[in-house]
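Quick illustration, no need to memorize.
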Amino acid sequence: MLPASVRDLERIGGAVCLDFVNTVDPRYVSDRIEYLPDYDALLEWSIATGLLDRSGADRLGDIARHRPQLARAVHRRALALREALFELLRREPGPDLAASLETLNAELARSRTQQVVERVLGGHCPRPRALADRIVGRRLAHVTPSRSGSGVRG
């Protein structure tokens, strides 16, 4: 049985970034379930995973109600980041690898950091510069079948 809401999603990834990738299920069918259909669901998922507390989510929700275009833009960026992470964390990255790296690096830049992520052949990263870099450098997560489709596990 599929979870009724984003709060009920099973966290199988072993890391928040992997659980974020798993907020759509099953990934490879047209009638997949999108657990982050809007900005409010993104806030609820952030609370459920411990990224935000309720008061922080309430403040962001208030801003979103006053600036709905901004909330929609942030939601679109979040989904684009999720898809980029999926592409980067697959065992065999597909043809969108460069675009996925660009999306991730743009979000890193938005977070006011100087970190970048690069594809490292052979999975070896001599000088990890960011958490995502360490994840990619240490090992690529793989896509594994779950009861309802596929999920990314570390």
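The two ends are 23 Å apart (CA to CA).
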